[in-house]
Each structure stands twice: as C-alpha cells, then as structure tokens.
Amino acid sequence: MSRLPAEVHLKRAIDELALMTGDSAGAERNIAQSFRLLIALEALGVGRIAGGTMNICGKLSAVPLLDPPNDEILEIGTLYGMFGAALIRMMERAGRDPSLTIVGPLAGLELQPGTTERDDLTGAPVRGAAVRTNLALAGTAGAAARIQQGFSEDAEVRAPVSDRSYGVIIIDGDHSAPGGIVVLDDFGHPKWPGIKEAYEKHMATDTRLTFLGQVANSGCLRADAKSRDASG
Questions:
Q1: Within 13 Å of residue 75, how many CA atoms lie on the same side as its CB?
Q2: Cα–Cα distance between 76 and 152 in angstroms, integer?
Q3: Domain membership of residue 143 as a residue range
Q4: Which one is predicted more confidently, 213 or 153?
Q5: pLDDT at residue 86 above 80?
Q6: Least CB-packed of 5, 86, 95, 153 within 10 Å?
C-alpha cells in the first residue's frame, strides 16, 4: 500500500484544514509533520495505522490546531496503537502534555461487534504486546497510556475509563469534556455510509455537539460547554 499522496489530495487536505481551523500556516505545517510521522511510525512499528494517508494526516493535524480543553485523549478502536502514538507526538509538538486512554478488543485481528473475523493485511496479530511496542515509540507518554481491553458498548469496559472528562475523543463522544474535540473516522466515506447516517440521526435530536468541518474522511466536532460529570 503506497502512502504517497497525489498533489491534488495533499492540497485539498491543507485547504480543508485551514478552512476549519482558520490557521493556514498551521495547516500546512501540521500536514507535513503528520505525513513524516506516519511514514516513520509504520517503518518502525508493528502493523499499521488504519485508513488512507490524507485521512490519517487530517486527524493528526486537526486535533492540536483545534486547541482541546484538556490533554486527556480517549481512543476507541485502536488497531495497533500506532495512531495513538502519533497523536501523542503531534500534541507534544504543540506544547501539550497528552495522556492517552485506549479501548479496543485486541483480539488478535481487526474486529468490530457483529463483523466477520479477518486477518489484518499486514499479517501482524492485533495484540496488546504490539500496541505497547508501538506506544513506546511515543516515549514517556506512550509508555504511560492506559489500555482497556474490550468493546466500548460493554458497561464493564466503559466503567474504568469513565473516571475523567476527555479533551479529545477519537470515534466516540460519550465522555467528552465541555469544549472537547470529537473525531469521527471514515466520515462521508462511500464504503462506510453508516457513519455519516448515524451522525445525522444523532445530530437531529442532540445539540451538544457542533460540527466544525471535515478533512479528507475525518469529521471534527466540538462538545458544547454544558456542565457534565466525568462519568458521562
């Protein structure tokens, strides 16, 4: 799988990020940094980061520029933990002090509730050991990351990670702090129409989240400032 983006896709991602954040210079800088980071981590780590190149770079670039209200990060569905390692590094480059919590089945393969089991295309099993190896590439903050094994829909899995408010949530918005950034992966992707459909259904009845914009196939939202306890 080639990670080299076409020039038109690179320019589009920078333009989308600049439009969403109002920071043209930051958009160009972060896209360049995140691309180099993606290549380096996949070269050194176990497995891969899920998704297309510009989708990954869009998420990694947007979060620091959107200035989340705190440095607590919740990632639901990690695959090999490599994206979490990359996000830690991008946050640190922005002068933040990230603390990562990961929730995922770590079942030896890419797995979602109700889906058919299949091996990952890299051939590497999705295991806790692989996740820890990749997180170690992010230094002290990566080594200190919390990992909760299981599906986020299960109450016994959610309980231990509901002890705080999160400034950044990747995929799920259930525990966001006021002003927190929520990133929806594969948003608007033609292969995964259910993600945007679920978003539209949720937004029709819940106004707590405000849509900020989209970079490649990553939709970014911000939680409003209503008071909410850490248990969600």
A1: 30
A2: 7
A3: 7-223
A4: 213
A5: yes
A6: 95
User: Which H or E run includes 75?
Assistant: strand 72-76
Query: For the chain, how are helix, strand and coil distributed in percent, rounded to 5?
Result: 40, 20, 40
Position 119 scores a pLDDT of: 67
| Count of domains observed in the chain | 1
Give the Cα-Cα-Cα angle 122, 125, 126 (nearest 5 degrees).
105
Q: Give domain status of residue 22, yes or no.
A: yes
The answer to whether the CB of 185 falls within 8 A of the CB of 51 is yes
Handedness of CA 136, 5, 18, 181 (dihedral sign): negative
Phi, psi (rounded to 5 degrees) for 158:
-70, -35
Phi then psi dihedrals of residue 141, to 5 deg: -65, -35
Cα 176 to chain centroid, rounded: 14
CB 126 within 8 A of CB 109: yes
Q: What is the largest CA-CA distance in the chain?
A: 46
pTM for the predicted model, two decimal places: 0.81
CATH of the domain at 96: 3.40.50.150
Phi/psi class of residue 13: alpha, beta or left (left: φ > 0; alpha: ψ in -120 to 50)? alpha
